[in-house]
Structures
1.
Amino acid sequence: NAGVTQTPKFQVLKTGQSMTLQCAQDMNHEYMSWYRQDPGMGLRLIHYSVGAGITDQGEVPNGYNVSRSTTEDFPLRLLSAAPSQTSVYFCASSGQGTDSGANVLTFGAGSRLTVL
Amino acid sequence: KQEVTQIPAALSVPEGENLVLNCSFTDSAIYNLQWFRQDPGKGLTSLLLIQSSQREQTSGRLNASLDKSSGRSTLYIAASQPGDSATYLCAVSGVRNTGKLIFGQGTTLQVKP
């Protein structure tokens, strides 16, 4: 049981380049989300999904796109990278059940992105 | 807009001390509250989840309480150990469970041997 897997772990981009951060979970979780973590800002929600085919914006969605074609995968696309997108990105997933264990958020190990 | 605050930002204690980490939130209409641990350069690990209908949850040396009416939660760590050194974050979920959380900025704990 791998949990939440993020790739790549590290990436350096030049301004204007595009890339996709991959996220996959094998726990059959309905909910998936992307956060960015910046010093002094904590974790902020970028986009989230409540099921395949359903996505919505979080607090800081500008410059990012997501899609959810399957329950397992939730990729995050940077359309035209900017230095302000230098950050550590975390993908997370959780289940839908009513018991507290189902709602626990499981995080990936993170992807550290630097935009020059 | 929901805001989550954690005070203090950093805390240093000697080994063996019992300690309390604080978390406050501005909107009491929450679905649940979670406490996480983050080690440097690592992802977040869930420690405890408290549903809005619950008052506290316990796991080993950890006890988390929730007072929705006052917008507060505390994480109590008993008999602290150097291995407890990490950043502790609390996060709240809104009235409907969507896996969407609002995080505090965390308290960085150092337990000295």
2.
Amino acid sequence: EDKVVQSPLSLVVHEGDTVTLNCSYEVTNFRSLLWYKQEKKAPTFLFMLTSSGIEKKSGRLSSILDKKELSSILNITATQTGDSAIYLCAVRKGFQKLVFGTGTRLLVSP
Amino acid sequence: DGGITQSPKYLFRKEGQNVTLSCEQNLNHDAMYWYRQDPGQGLRLIYYSQIVNDFQKGDIAEGYSVSREKKESFPLTVTSAQKNPTAFYLCASSIGGGPADTQYFGPGTRLTVL
């Protein structure tokens, strides 16, 4: 059975801290791994990773995929209160299907 | 404005009633999807459609039905056969196919069964 596991389930940090969110997967026919941020309603797309070892970066956020370890990490440096959200990891298998993890709930306190 | 719209935002249903959730996109995307999100669980795929007049069951299709008569629209009907329909429903769309295909989400509909 396909599985995507995220850790930790929830996290509370202070503004300015650096956080690392983890995603591990066991999915047949892996195509890519995606990260989304969900603040209140619609998840918004952050990154798509297809190749191992190549870091994707956007401002204070970065992510990398390790296909050997079947995992990915999402790093957020110098966190701000606006980073408070649920971060979702999803693995694309085959043509269209995404398998989602349960998410990591991040709270950044001022 | 390009994007995905879902309506209504909130929906209350009595047991035994069918309800239809609307999803419209003006992104000219071929593929559309319906997911269900429950507290403490990841998004789960209900149905998806790669092209007009075609759709496939996802992982939890029982008690749901869809249609895809127009490229822009992919309505979801929650039937009385769905045993636990209270959830947050998200619609998504993507260009369709290709290794870089990315799904973009609408704002969601929260359905509560009274």
3.
Amino acid sequence: NAGVTQTPKFQVLKTGQSMTLQCAQDMNHNSMYWYRQDPGMGLRLIYYSASEGTTDKGEVPNGYNVSRLNKREFSLRLESAAPSQTSVYFCASSEFATGGPDTQYFGPGTRLTVL
Amino acid sequence: TQLLEQSPQFLSIQEGENLTVYCNSSSVFSSLQWYRQEPGEGPVLLVTVVTGGEVKKLKRLTFQFGDARKDSSLHITAAQPGDTGLYLCAGTHNAGGTSYGKLTFGQGTILTVHP
């Protein structure tokens, strides 16, 4: 099992360009998440999908859109990239057991630079 | 937004020393998790604590959840260079059993253990 995979690993954009970050998991998990990680700020939740067919905003959703394409795939789109979106982006998945705390499994990250 | 404050932000010690990392909040959490992240990779779960006052041990690592479930600590005994990495605490709130999936992360503690 590959776990959680993300593409691309690195990306450089110019201000105003658009791009889509791809994420896929092969663990048959119900829930998927997108985070961004900036120095000194830990991980902040951008969007999440509790189950196939649903998406919800997290802590920092402005400037992003998401699509839960199917149970395996969850993509993050930047419509008009800004320098403030320079960050490392992590996708995660979890079973989302409502009876107790979850374990989230993270991908290796996408390092995005917006010039 | 329920905040988690981690301290210290940076820790540089010699092999064999002991250390403690703290994670504090003004909010009550249903569960508290500790993750470890190595450079270029995503975070990996170390432990989950759910009961106030709970103590869990993982080899040389000891995790404690505060009695009021607002704080947690990670203690490492006889640190080794292999312990080097970013340590993140993350909490969940259970709002009627629907929020277990959403994690709030602390800012992280960068630990460097010198040989």
